[in-house]
């Protein structure tokens, strides 16, 4: 049975996300990008509408929707404001998801309801100044002190670092054991000993709240460890499989947003006596962009479908993340080209979308890391 139709519920969520993005995010997205300011008012509204508990079980006050609906919602938000979309993706995929999947009942009851309603926001802390792609090389140390862990170290490039209330922290408890000596912890951001570096002044996603986070003798209660002792690396990798579906959706939404603007411009702008879309040079670009977007969407929906069917989806998520991010860069670059000089100024949005696309090839596993994951699945036993 192969069915390409979306359900009524999925379509309703997509429409709600589209309306929200156009009504609430579009009017001041350029200003937020320019000044690097968080969409605080809109984030609160998104929480009230259920966007921060999209896949969480209603028993913990979530909306209980599937991954396909989640993909469609993130695409729509990303068409207009990818900085808000990354907040949604990190919060839902990298914090809600592991608490629900690996947490004890006590942890779920304590943390999920506030996360699902957006009262609390989440951040995921894995990367370090000297450990990005090579995630086992992290140095942050959580030392077992009996009834608590004492955490020391530095995490960087942390999305939502300041606006989040709950951190999903990945740290070494036993470095000699390499990846088997890593654990995942739920850490409340207001715990004494946690300080933040300055807001990163980024090329794109400028209104996403990115900082480094310093831990100095931070006490994390024993009951806040997620899963069995030493299971943290595998938990992080599994979380990232789901996170990569979120970022692939974000990348594809950026590409779709740029494509819509390029098509509109190509239909309106005239040169040499006709609309530029009727010149083959532009028409073929539009065609190439459309085929790439359609291919990316199929890969992404397949990864989401496999996740929803509880089938292994590591490779499909890596393929979707790599391909969606790479075509986002290509499509946004062509959208700027189609706009000519207008593409190079802020008002037409495509230069911003191009800057945003670049980050999707870097975070939650670079395109090169995705190729390692994909190729290993064919080459290793
Ligand atoms: N899913 C499930 N399990 C996985 C896995 C995956 N995707 N990747 C690895 N594992 C498991 C392996 O099966 C293995 O298990 P065993 O020990 O039982 O055999 C174990 O984890 C170790 O795996 P590897 O030996 O393959 O580990 P490695 O050191 O070679 O690294 C890697 C693998 C794929 C390169 C990994 O390090 C990686 O994904 N790096 C990228 C890190 C990353 O994505 N960082 C993103 C930061 S978060 C972020 O950007 C969020 C944000 O704010 C936007």
What does this structure look like?
With 381 residues, this protein is an alpha+beta fold. The protein contains eleven helices and ten strands. It has helices at residues 8-25, 29-35, 40-48, 67-80, 82-102, 105-116, 232-268, 280-308, 314-339, 350-360, 367-379; strands at 122-125, 141-144, 148-159, 166-172, 182-188, 194-196, 210-221, 225-226, 270-271, 274-275. The strands form three sheets. A four-stranded mixed β-sheet has the order 1-4-5-8. A four-stranded antiparallel β-sheet has the order 2-3-7-6, with helices on one face. The protein has a two-stranded antiparallel ribbon with strand order 9-10. Strand 2 and strand 3 (148-159) form a beta hairpin. It is globular. The protein starts with 7 loop residues before the first helix and ends with a helix. The structure holds acetoacetyl-coenzyme A. Acetoacetyl-coenzyme A binds next to helix 5, helix 7 and helix 11.
Portion in beta strands = 5-15%
Distance between the termini: 31 Å
Question: Major sheet: order of its strands?
Answer: 1-4-5-8
What general outline do the C-alpha atoms trace?
globular
Helix content: 40-55%
Mean pLDDT: 97
- Specify the oligomeric state: single chain
Q: Count the helices. How many? A: 11
Question: Could you tell me the radius of gyration in angstroms?
Answer: 21 Å
């Amino acid at each position: 049975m192969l069915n390409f139709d979306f359900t009524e519920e999925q379509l309703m969520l997509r429409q709600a996300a589209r309306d929200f993005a156009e009504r609430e995010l579009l009017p001041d997205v350029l200003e937020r990008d320019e000044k690097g300011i968080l969409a605080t008012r809109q984030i609160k509204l998104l929480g009230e509408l259920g966007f921060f508990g999209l896949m969480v079980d209603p028993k913990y006050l979530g909306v209980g929707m599937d991954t396909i609906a989640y993909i469609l919602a993130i695409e729509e938000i990303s068409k207009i404001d990818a900085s808000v979309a990354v907040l949604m993706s990190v919060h839902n995929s990298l914090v809600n998801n592991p608490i629900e999947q690996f947490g004890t009942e006590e942890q779920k009851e304590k943390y999920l309801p506030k996360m699902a309603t957006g009262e609390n926001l989440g951040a995921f802390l894995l990367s370090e100044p000297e450990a990005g792609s090579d995630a086992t090389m992290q140095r942050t140390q959580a030392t077992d002190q009996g009834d608590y862990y004492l955490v020391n170290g530095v995490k960087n490039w942390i999305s939502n670092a300041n606006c989040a209330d709950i951190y999903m922290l990945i740290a070494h408890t036993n470095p000699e054991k390499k990846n088997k000596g890593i654990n995942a912890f739920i850490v409340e951001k207001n715990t004494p000993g946690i300080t933040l570096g300055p807001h990163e002044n980024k090329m794109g996603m400028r209104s996403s709240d990115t900082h480094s986070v310093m831990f100095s003798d931070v006490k994390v209660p024993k009951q806040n460890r997620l899963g069995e002792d030493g299971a943290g690396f595998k938990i992080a990798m599994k979380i990232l499989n789901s996170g990569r579906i979120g970022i692939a959706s974000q990348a594809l939404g950026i590409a779709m947003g740029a494509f819509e603007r390029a098509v509109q411009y190509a239909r309106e702008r005239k040169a040499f006596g006709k609309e530029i879309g009727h010149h083959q040079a532009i028409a073929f670009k539009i065609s190439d962009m459309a085929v790439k977007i359609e291919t990316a969407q199929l890969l992404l929906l397949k990864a989401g479908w496999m996740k929803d069917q509880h089938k292994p989806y590591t490779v499909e998520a890596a393929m979707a993340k790599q391909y969606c991010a790479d075509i986002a860069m290509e499509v946004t670059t062509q959208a700027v080209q189609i706009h000519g000089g207008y593409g190079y100024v802020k008002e037409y949005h495509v230069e911003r979308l191009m800057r945003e696309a670049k980050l999707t090839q870097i975070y939650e596993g670079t395109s090169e890391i995705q190729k390692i994951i994909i190729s290993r699945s064919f080459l290793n036993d």
